[in-house]
C-alpha cells in the first residue's frame, strides 16, 4: 500500500444525469487531492445493473473532462467483482460474515442464500473533517446484508473494498452517506483496511432552501456547457457553494483554488445554490478573457448580417454567458434592419389631441440635432466626439427632450443603448438617414393632423392613424 500519499475519489452511480450539487463533491475531492500532491480516482459505481446506464457514465466522463477534473485512475465497480468476492470469502472464513438461508420476501417460499455481516454491536467512531469526531451506535443495524450471494456484493462492501484497494485516504462525499459510514467502518475493520478520513459535505439547497434536485434549480453540468458557461467559472462558482477561502477574494483560477482549498473551511450548515451568482462568476471569468477570445466567441454566435466588430462591446455588456448573445442580438436587430417607424408607440408623440405642440417641438429638436451631427466628420464619428457635439445643446434644451427622440430615431425602440453608442455603430450616413426619416415621419403625421383633418381636429381616428402609418411605409421602403 502506498505511503502517506493522499488519495481521493469521486464515486458516482451512473443512474441519471448528475447535477451541480453532485459535481461539487467531485470538485472538492479533486482540489483536495491536488492541493496535497495526491491522486484523484474516478470510480463508476455501476453494481446496480438495472439502473446503471452507459449514457449516464458517458455524461459523467464528459462533464469531468469539461471541468478539467483530470483523474489519475478510472475504473468501474463492476470490473472488481472478483475482488469483492475475495474479501467476502475471507470474511466468512474468519467469522466476520456468514451465509444465511432465508425465505424470499416475496412469499414465494424460495429459500435464498444471503451473506450477512456479523455485527459486533459496538459504538463506531470515525473522523470527519467537517463534522469532527462522529460516534454512532450500530446495535440497531443488526447483522446487515452485505451480498445477495457470493457473486453479487452489495453497495457497502463494494465501496469499502474498492476504497481500500485504491488506497483511498479521504472519503469526500455527500452528507446523505453519513448514516452508511458506521457499516462501512465495520466492514473495513473486518477486512483489515485502515479507516479512511471522512468529509461529508453539507447538503446543497435551492434558493428557496428546499433540497436541490434536478427539478429544483439544478441542471446537469453539460447543460451549463451547452448554455455557454465557461468551465473555469463553473469550477470557481461551484467550489464556492459551501466553501470559501476566508478572504474577500471570490474570483479564482484553477491553480488558485487548488492553493487555497481547505476541507476545514467547508461550512457545516447546508449551502444555498444560486444560478444568479453562478452567472455572476461566469461574467467575471469572461472579463478575464483576451479581447480576441471575447470577439471570437461573440462573432460565432451572431447571425450573419450582424457580424460587425463594432457591436461587440454593446453585446458583451449585456451578456453573462455565450448563450445570451443570440437573445441580445435579437433585441439589437434594429441596428442592422431598415427602420420604418411604422409602429411608433410613443404615447407622447401620438397624443396630438392634447399635446400637438409636443410633436412640433420634437421636430424642432431633431432638426437641430441633425444639423449639429451633419457637421461631424466621418473620421470623428465616435462615441466621445458625438457626445461632445450634442452635449451642450441637450443641456440647454433638457437632456431628455433631445436624447430621447434621438435614441428613438436610431433604434425605433422604447429601450435601447444610449444614442451615442447607437450612432457610433450605425455610422455617419445611416445615423443621419434615420434621423431624417423620423423627421419625415413626424412631418407626415402633422400634415395629416393639421391639413387633412381640419384646423382643430387632431389625429384621433383609427383611419387617420392608419394613413399616417401608410405614408411612413411608402416613404421608407
Ligand atoms: N455511489 C454513491 C453515490 O452516487 C457514492 C458512494 C460514496 O461516495 O461512497 O451517491
Automatic annotation (TrEMBL):
Top EC category: ligase
Superkingdom: Bacteria
Transmembrane domains' residue ranges: none
Binding-site residues, ATP: 214
EC number(s) given by UniProt: 6.1.1.17
UniProt cross-references to Gene3D superfamilies, sorted A to Z: 1.10.10.350, HUPs (3.40.50.620)
Glutamyl/glutaminyl-tRNA synthetase class Ib catalytic domain mapped to chain residues: 5-102, 110-280
PROSITE patterns given in the database record: AA_TRNA_LIGASE_I
Positions of short motif 'HIGH' region: 12-22
Annotated Gene Ontology cellular component terms: cytosol
The keyword Protein biosynthesis is annotated on this UniProt entry: yes
Reactions the enzyme catalyzes: tRNA(Glu) + L-glutamate + ATP = L-glutamyl-tRNA(Glu) + AMP + diphosphate
SUPFAM superfamilies: An anticodon-binding domain of class I aminoacyl-tRNA synthetases (SSF48163), Nucleotidylyl transferase (SSF52374)
Keyword Transmembrane: no
GO molecular function: ATP binding; glutamate-tRNA ligase activity; tRNA binding; zinc ion binding
Keyword annotations of the record: Aminoacyl-tRNA synthetase, ATP-binding, Cytoplasm, Ligase, Nucleotide-binding, Protein biosynthesis
Ranges for domain Aminoacyl-tRNA synthetase class I anticodon-binding: 303-439
Localization: Cytoplasm
Record family assignment: Belongs to the class-I aminoacyl-tRNA synthetase family. Glutamate--tRNA ligase type 1 subfamily.
Purpose of the protein: Catalyzes the attachment of glutamate to tRNA(Glu) in a two-step reaction: glutamate is first activated by ATP to form Glu-AMP and then transferred to the acceptor end of tRNA(Glu).
Subunit structure: Monomer.
Full protein name: Glutamate--tRNA ligase
Organism, scientific name: Candidatus Nomurabacteria bacterium GW2011_GWC2_41_8
Lineage, broadest ranks: Bacteria, Candidatus Nomuraibacteriota
Gene this protein is translated from: gltX
Amino acid at each position: 500500500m502506498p505511503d502517506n500519499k493522499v488519495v481521493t475519489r469521486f464515486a458516482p452511480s451512473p443512474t441519471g444525469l448528475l447535477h451541480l450539487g453532485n459535481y461539487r463533491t467531485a470538485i472538492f475531492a479533486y482540489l483536495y487531492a491536488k492541493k496535497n500532491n495526491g491522486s484523484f480516482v474516478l470510480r463508476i459505481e455501476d453494481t446496480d445493473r438495472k439502473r446503471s446506464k452507459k449514457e449516464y457514465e458517458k455524461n459523467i466522463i464528459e462533464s469531468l473532462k469539461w471541468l478539467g477534473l483530470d483523474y489519475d485512475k478510472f475504473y468501474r465497480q463492476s470490473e472488481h467483482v472478483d475482488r469483492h468476492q475475495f474479501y467476502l470469502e475471507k470474511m466468512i472464513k474468519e467469522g466476520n460474515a456468514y451465509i444465511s438461508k432465508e425465505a424470499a420476501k416475496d412469499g414465494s417460499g424460495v429459500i435464498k442464500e444471503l451473506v450477512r455481516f456479523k455485527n459486533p454491536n459496538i459504538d463506531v467512531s470515525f473522523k470527519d473533517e467537517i463534522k469532527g469526531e462522529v460516534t454512532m451506535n450500530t446495535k440497531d443495524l443488526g447483522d446487515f446484508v452485505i451480498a445477495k450471494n457470493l457473486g453479487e456484493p452489495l453497495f457497502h462492501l463494494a465501496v469499502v473494498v474498492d476504497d481500500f484497494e485504491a488506497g483511498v485516504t479521504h472519503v469526500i462525499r455527500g452528507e446523505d452517506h453519513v448514516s452508511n459510514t458506521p457499516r462501512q467502518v465495520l466492514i473495513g475493520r473486518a477486512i483489515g483496511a485502515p479507516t479512511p478520513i471522512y468529509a461529508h459535505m453539507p447538503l446543497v439547497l435551492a434558493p428557496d432552501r428546499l433540497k436541490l434536485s434536478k427539478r429544483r434549480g439544478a441542471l446537469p453540468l453539460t447543460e451549463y456547457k451547452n448554455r455557454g458557461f465557461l468551465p473555469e467559472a463553473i469550477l470557481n462558482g461551484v467550489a464556492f457553494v459551501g466553501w470559501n477561502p476566508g478572504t474577500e477574494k471570490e474570483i479564482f483560477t484553477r491553480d488558485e483554488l487548488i492553493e487555497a482549498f481547505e476541507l476545514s473551511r467547508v461550512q457545516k450548515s447546508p449551502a444555498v445554490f444560486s444560478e444568479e451568482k453562478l452567472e455572476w462568476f461566469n461574467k467575471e471569468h469572461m472579463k478575464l478573457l483576451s479581447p480576441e477570445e471575447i470577439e471570437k466567441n461573440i462573432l460565432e454566435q451572431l447571425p450573419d448580417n450582424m457580424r460587425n466588430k463594432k457591436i461587440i462591446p454593446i453585446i458583451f455588456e449585456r451578456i453573462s454567458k455565450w448563450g445570451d448573445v443570440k437573445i441580445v442580438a435579437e433585441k439589437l436587430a434594429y441596428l442592422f434592419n431598415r427602420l420604418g417607424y411604422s409602429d411608433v408607440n410613443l404615447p407622447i408623440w401620438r397624443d396630438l389631441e392634447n399635446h400637438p405642440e409636443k410633436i412640433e417641438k420634437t421636430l424642432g429638436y431633431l432638426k437641430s440635432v441633425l444639423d449639429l451631427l451633419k457637421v461631424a466628420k466621418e473620421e470623428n464619428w465616435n462615441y466621445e466626439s458625438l457626445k461632445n457635439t450634442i452635449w451642450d445643446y441637450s443641456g440647454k434644451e433638457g437632456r431628455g427632450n433631445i436624447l430621447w427622440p434621438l435614441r428613438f430615431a436610431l433604434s425605433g425602440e422604447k429601450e435601447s443603448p444610449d444614442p451615442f453608442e447607437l450612432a457610433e455603430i450605425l455610422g455617419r450616413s445611416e445615423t443621419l438617414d434615420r434621423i431624417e426619416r423620423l423627421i419625415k415621419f413626424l412631418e407626415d403625421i402633422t400634415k395629416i393632423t393639421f391639413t387633412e383633418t381640419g384646423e382643430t381636429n387632431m389625429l384621433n381616428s383609427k383611419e387617420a392613424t392608419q394613413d399616417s402609418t401608410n405614408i411612413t411605409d411608402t416613404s421608407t421602403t
